[in-house]
Amino acid sequence: MNDETESHPVNRPPHPAEWIIGAASALGVLALIGYLCVTALTEADGPPVFEVAVDEVLAGSNGWHARISLRNTGDKTAAHVVLRGEDGAGETSEITFDYVPAGSMRQGALLFAREPVGLELTVRSYTDP
User: Fold this and answer.
1) Considering Cα of 85, then 129, then 49, then 51, what sign does the dihedral take?
2) CA 67 → CA 30, 46, 55, 78, distances in Å?
3) Which pTM was predicted?
């Protein structure tokens, strides 16, 4: 007998498992392509939209800490977001958030020498990453 014909069958029909795996893979690829196309066509292309809030104000050993939340409800990511807080007496403090993705929230603290009363928060600037 020839060793080549024994180890390599000729014209063997594919096993049903091969067809099932092939079909499942093809469906997965088509679903991924469809998702990417729908996302590309329907995704809004607006700027970052910021919502800021004071969570709490705490006294610390080095002054007052105003814990704040910054939420980006817009469609684009923002980088180097500069947030400024000014209290009613005119004292100011700034914080920079390195990266704020669309639909995310970041937290931090502004530091003040005296208790911040009537704190106003404004986003001063950002860059596109």
Assistant:
1) negative
2) 47, 28, 5, 21
3) 0.67
